Every structure is written in structure tokens, then in C-alpha cells.
Amino acid sequence: MSDAAVVTAFLDRQPFSADRFQREALDHVVAGSSVVVTAPTGSGKTLIAQGAVEGALASGSRAFYTTPIKALSNQKFAEFRALHGDGRVGLLTGDNVINGDAPVVVMTTEVLRNMIYADSAALVGLGVVILDEVHYLQDRYRGPVWEEVIIHLPANIPIVALSATIANAEEFTGWIRERRGTTALVAEHERPVPLESLYLVTDRHHGTLPLLPVFSKSGDRPNPELVRLLRKGRGRRRRFATPRRLEVAQRLAEEQLLPAIYFIFSRAGCDRAAATVGAAGLPLTTPDERAAIRDLVAERTSHLSEHDLAVLSFASWRQQLEHGVAAHHAGMVPAFKEAVEDVFAAGLVKLVFATETLALGINMPARSVVLENLSKFSGEGHELLQPGDYTQLTGRAGRRGIDSRGSAVVLYSQYVPFERVAGIAGTGSHALRSSFQPTYNMAVNLAANYGRNDAFGLLQASFAGYRQGERRRSLEQRLEERERQVAEFRDAATCERGDLWAYLERAGSADSEAGLWALLRRMQPGDVIEQGSVPGRWVLLARSWGGRTPRLLLLSDGGELVQLRPKDMSSAVTVLGTMELPEPFTPRSPDYQREVALLLREWKGSGAPADHYDIAALEDPVASCPRLDDHQRNARRAARAQADADRLRRRIDRQGTDLVEQFEGVLGVLAHFGYLDRWRLTDRGQELRWVYNELDLLLTEAVGRGSFTGLAPAQLAAVASLFTFEARRLDQPGGWPDAIVAERGEQIAVLWQELAIEEERRGVPQTREPDPGFAELVHAWTLGAELDDLFGDDEFAAGDFVRNCRQLLDLLRQLRDAFPPLAATAARAVRAVDRGIVAAGGRL
Fold first, then answer.
1. Of the ranges 357-361, 766-770, 794-798, which is most confident?
2. What is the pLDDT of residue 777?
3. Sign, CA torsion 78/82/86/88
4. Could you read off the pLDDT of 127-171 as tens digits, one per residue?
5. For residue 221, what pLDDT is reported?
6. pLDDT at res. 794
7. What is the mean pLDDT of residues 664-687?
8. What is the 3 state secondary structure string of 287-348?
9. Per DSSP, what are the bridge partners of residue 528?
10. For residue 214, which of 204, 224, 206 has the smallest C-alpha distance?
11. Rg (Cα) of the chain, in Å, rounded?
């Protein structure tokens, strides 16, 4: 059976008819083309991935499915096992290595990047790579990994890039096409379930919570009823306020908008909200639902010991779920987080308070989504959500086949004007931007696999480089147009009587300009003038000053009223004399102007001119050209076009230099520390190739300088934690567990300062400072401490503890595999850390 027939049979087996965009995407996959699919969340992109896997397996090839986070990898692993059987599906996430040689392997994107750099044999026979949530490449910390995969994956392996809706899908597809050959774009803009954006506000005057649509019935402008209502809140006493979380929960229940996901960009906020609403006793679940919740929770937590469950306050957490309410965030222990996902997906829990990580592809559809705030902390300050963020977060609203519509409920905030809310909700998507920047690990892998020129070319082949190239081409086209206009305007300004440009240079000299200004300062209302070749006589009605520049209000004998600045005046000005202006003096009155114009036509003058300014005094024949004003106008146009062309040329010269300069800086730092000798890797450079850590160079250098040598397993784990832990709060507790770890920590701090100085000198973004905040905890855990010894009753701290231990385990395994002298101790440290609730965190 052909690949096409296999995919057709796969689609025919589905309980519903495939959508147009799903069939179109799979047609391209079957044809061997790469494809970019952009579609709203929940529209069925997973079906395309499943069909691509079916086609690869039918041809005897393997398929890789990559995701941005381990939780999503675990979910997709379970889905593919249900489709193809346990023996045919593997998982590689760092936490788990299960059946890695299977025909279908689900993995985090970093794992695939590492395989590519290692030239892994696993890439042989690979028929397709699915890059899920590919828009994640704009993430400032981990986004570059997607670009590295797209750039370096062998070109004969097609990719299926699945993305939420983005505004510049054509540009993104064009980049992949340039890198990998034939690539199709399949875009779907319609949501499978229509979304209605609503606005909820507390009206203090009436004690109500109005819930109104954000947009008018036509959908093309902000709801005028809501605009009028909010205008009534202006004044000293605030009429409107943000609804309280319990009030929102009650209103959602009244409006039959449950189940709902309520986004709060704070873990502590999610926990507090769930506790508050859970304790309120809202009738959200039935007795049968509560029994089903107990059964599902028991299944999901069966691998945890009674002791650990007690420390985690299991009973109160389960009771909260039975009330139909839950929190969901990365600080929870995996078993609890996965249990929340299960009971919500089953329709048992009705309200989940979640951080934005829930929006990353995890299958938890709801009837409505609530956004408590349209701004979140970016790590450096609070920033408003982008339209694409709004689309991503609200993508879970509306269950396909269940709901006729989904609802996105935005809560009132005095800090975000309603018009801004409507702008964010109405735009739909924003342009995908690159976060690509060269790292030390990337640099040594480029040096190991490519010549210098090729490496720089690949750097420019990033999406960031491609966008710069596109901007450069656009700027070059604009420059070409401006230069054409310069030539046309200069040609139109050519004067048959002489050199216009020389004449203008003399006319614009300080002396001639001073002469004109002196004349204008002497003029008074009632002065009658002639302006060179401009027909008729003019009378000065009024004069004003804009800074140092005078402005003249002139009236012609034909009744034309103009306001001129010196540069607008003719090249020759003659004051013929002064006429008496009628009283009362009302120069802006049309009747007054008509009367003055009549008097001006009848005015005979008084003999010789009273004053005179004439560029012709320079004895240049150009000054007497009857078309001089036209020439001067075109000369000014030419000058403006030339100035614009010069600006464009400077911008073009700057294009593409940032990445190259930064890469040169990275290479300079590597050479300074002895990792690179011209374009040849030293032994230390070879070691750095296998270190995948945010502090990669600092870690490798610390190993080389003996900071990890001679340590016991617990001490090794404590020192290694400096490179994986990063405090979420400034007041994060933590200290040194013993004098030896403290000494090694001080050595690493000094080394970091040395590296930071060199990075600043080379213009390279500074490596973050190592953080000792986890060293004491993990040292105690590695020596055998129990969970309650570390946290007492703080069950929420345990979730962060597990997450940090899982990250540390990944680094300990790297130390074990990349540095043979540390292998034995690092292996013992892995076994000591990976126990109890930590080991349960990696269980599937």
C-alpha cells in the first residue's frame, strides 16, 4: 500500500471527517515536502502529526515528534502508545529514556538538537520530524533550539512544523524553504468553535457584575454599550473595580460558562485562588463526580508513599478537587499536576486556576477561559500581552463537538484601558520573531562540523538572519526607488539659464538669508510687496513668530490669503510702500479681507520702493527665470529624497551586523579561555560540545579548573546545582552545606567574574551568575533526608524541589557522560538524588 493510501486509510478510520487544511497538509507530507501548519489551538493539528507518522511507518522509516516541554512530551507519548502499542513508541526527555530505538520517538526539542550535533546514528532511517509548538522559537531562553534543529537537521528529512496562528506565516515558511527546500504553508484561520470575548467588571454603585461582549454585534469595533458604561466611572471615586475571584467563579456558574480555566500569572496566586474558591463550598460537583475524582486521584498518586502524601497535604488537596476546584502550575509535584489534568479533561473538576504554561499544547479544553490580567512579569518588568498570547491562552475555550461557542472572559483593570483590551483581543496574532543568538556550545559545534566561512553562513541562515536579509532586500528596493526619485527631481529642477544648484548654494548662504530676515523684521502690517515672479501685489496683514522663525500673513490683490515662512518666500522681495489698513483691525474676517483686497487693487503707491531684497543682485541669470519657483520646488524634493536615500543606505550598512559581531565576540571569549585555536577546537573545546546548559562555558571551565574534583556525591550535587538553579524571588533562602562546597562555590564565583569581564570586553551578553540557593537542600536530600525534614508543612515548596532536582539530574548525567574523571561520583549522585518523590516525578 502506498504512503498516500495509508494516510487516506488513516483518515477514513477517524470518527469525524478531516478538515480541508488537515487533508491539504497531509497531501504535502505524502509528497515528501516539508510543511508549516498554522492553525488556532484546538483545531486539530495533532491529526496531521498522527497522519505523518502513519506515512513514515508505512514506508519503513522512523518518526520523531518533538515538543517544547516534558509534560507535553509525556502526554504525546501516551497518545502514540495508545495508537501504535507500547513496543513501537519511545520517549526521550532527559527525565525518561524509554524504548529510544522505537519506530516512533517522542522527545523534547533539545534532545533532537543534541542528536544532530552528535551526528547520532538514530538519525539514519528517519522519515519525518514533527516540530510541535514551533512558534516557541521566539522564547528568549530556549527558542534558539528550534532554529538550530531546522538549520542543521539533514535536508533530506522533511519536517512538519505545527504552530499557533502567526501573522508572518509566509515569511517563516519562506525561511524554512530557503534552508530545507520544498516547503508548503497550510494556514487555517477559523476556530473549530467560535470564540466570543467578554468583559467582566464590578460596578460598585449598583453592586453588580456586568458581563458584556468586548465587541459590537458586527464585531468590527469595541462594544459602544461597554464604552459608555466605563465612561461613567471617571472621577475622584472609582466606580468600577476588578471582580474578586470567588465572585468570578459564582458568575461563571450562573452563566453556565463552566468548566473554565482561569489564568493567573503567579503560582502563589493560583494556589490562593483555588483555596479560596474551594473553601467557599460552591455546588460544583455531584456525589458521583466526587467519587470518580477520588478514584482517578488514587490511580495517579498510587506510586507515592503514605509518608510523602502526608507531607504534601494530600487529603486537603484531594478535598479541594472534590469541590470541583484545582490549581495547576509548574511548582506542583508531577503526580498532582497530572491528576488535575485528568480530572479536568474528564469533566469532573469545573474550575482550574492555572499559569500560562497550561496553554502550551496540554489537552485541557474548557467552555471558557478567564484572563485576570492582560499583563505579566517578563523577568525584567511587566509587559502587556501580545495579541498572539491572547489567542494562545484563549485557545482552550470551546470544546469541539460539545460547545457551540467558547468564551474568553477578560476582567476589568484600571491599569489597562478598555480600548487596549479590544485591540489585543481583536488582532488575533502577532509576527513570529527570532530569539536566536550564538551560544558557546553552538559555536564549538559549528567549529567541529563546518569551516569558518560555512559557519558564518549558517549563522546568517537562522530565522533572525533571514529576517535581516528580507529587511535588507526591502530597504534596497526602497533605496532604489528613492535614488530614481532623486534623479527625476534633479532633472525637473534643471534650469536652462544656468546652474540652479550653484545659484541655490549662494542664495542659501548666511549673508543672503540674513538679508531676507532683516527685511522681514523691518516689515509692518500694511506694507505692500511684490515677490519676484509671483504675479500681483501683496499686503502684510500680520506677522507672528514660531521660535526664531517669522511667519507672515499675506493677502493678495486677488483676495488670496497665505501664511509664509522665509523659506517659502520668493527669491526677490520688494516693499513698494505702506497702505493704511481699515479699522477696526480684524484680519481673520473674510469681509475685512475683501475690503483690504479692494483697497490694495486701488492703491497707487508713493513713488520709489521703500525697501528691497533681491537674489538677482548676485547677478545670476537663474534669478530671473520665470520658472524659478518650480525649479526650487523640485530642488527641495530632490534634497528630501536624497536625505531619505542616505538614511536608507546607513540602515542597510547596519543590517546583519549584530549576529556576526556577537558570534565574533563568542569566538573571542572561547579563544581567550583556550577552547578555540583559530578555527581548531582544543581538548577543552571538544568537552564543551557535550555540555548543554545555560552556563555551558562556565561549567566546563569550572570542571577544568578542578572545582568538581575530589567531591563526595552530595557535595558534587550541591556544586552542580549552582548551574541549574535560579531563584524565583530575591529572598530565596539558601546557604552552603559545608566548608568544602563553600570553597568550591567561591572559586566558581571568582571564575564567573573573570568570564563576565571578558564578555563585557567582547560585547557578548553576560552569562548569569551561579545561584547557590539550592545547594543546601539538595545536599541534605542526597545524604538521605526525607521530604518533611526539608519542608515541613509547605507542600507547595515540594513541587519546586522536584522540578529543580529533575533539572539537576539532567546536568549530573551530562557530567557523568562528558567528563570521565567525574563519571563514578556523578553516577552515585544521580542514584542518590533520583529517589522517592523525585523519582516519582519522572514516572509515567
1. 766-770
2. 92
3. negative
4. 999 999 888 888 877 888 899 999 999 999 999 999 888 888 999
5. 85
6. 52
7. 94
8. HHHHHHHHHHHHHHCCCCCHHHHHHCCHHHHHHHHHCCEEEECCCCCHHHHHHHHHHHHCCC
9. 539, 577
10. 224
11. 36
- Percent helix, strand, coil in the chain (nearest 5)? 50, 15, 35
Beta bridge pairs of residue 197: 408
Confidence of residue 509 (pLDDT cuts 50, 70, 90): very low
Query: pLDDT, tens digit, for every residue of 345-374?
Result: 899 999 999 988 766 656 788 899 999 988
Residue 129 φ/ψ, nearest 5 degrees? -125, 125
Let me know: does 423 contact 437? Beta carbons within 8 Å. Answer: no
* Domains of the chain by start residue, with CATH: 3-187 (3.40.50.300), 195-427 (3.40.50.300), 500-622 (2.30.30), 685-841 (1.10.3380.30)
Q: What is the DSSP string of 246-289?
A: HHHHHHHHHTT--SEEEE-S-HHHHHHHHHHHHHTT-----HHH
With H, G, I as helix, E, B as strand and everything else as coil, classify residue 728: coil
**All three cell numbers of 176:** 524554512
Asked whether the beta carbons of 785 and 312 are under 8 A apart, the reply is no
Mapped onto helix, strand or coil, the DSSP state of residue 534 is strand
Q: What is the CA 795 to chain-centroid distance, rounded? A: 33
β-strand partners of 110: none
Distance CA 841, CA 844 (A): 8
Taking each helix axis as running N to C, give the angle between helix 657-672 and helix 739-762, from 0 to 180 degrees, rounded to the nearest 10: 130
Between CA 86 and CA 433 the distance in angstroms is 38
Torsion of CA 13, 16, 17, 20, to 10 degrees: -110
Q: DSSP letter at 842? A: T
Q: CA 419, CA 414: separation in Å to the nearest integer? A: 12
Percentage with pLDDT > 90 across the chain:
41
- Nearest C-alpha neighbor of 648 from the set 474, 467, 479: 479
Give the containing element (helix H, strand E) for 116.
helix 109-117
Which pLDDT value is given to residue 719?
97
pLDDT score of 44 = 84
CA 613 – CA 615 distance, rounded (Å): 7
- Tell me which residue of 356, 371, 381, 466 sits closest to 421, measured CA to CA: 371
Average pLDDT, the chain: 85
Cell output for 77: 507519548
What is the mean predicted confidence (pLDDT) over 271-279?
Answer: 92
pLDDT of 723: 96
Contacts of 572 (CB under 8 A, 6+ apart): 531, 532, 613, 614, 615, 616, 623
Highest mean pLDDT, choosing among 47-61, 210-224, 544-558, 613-627: 47-61
Give residue 570's identity as a one-letter amino acid code. S
CA–CA distance, 50 with 9 (Å, rounded to integer): 12
Residue 103's pLDDT is: 95
**143-172 exposure pattern, b = at least 16 Cβ within 10 A, e = fewer:** bbbbbbbbbbbeeebbbbbbbbbbbbbeeb
pLDDT at 726: 86
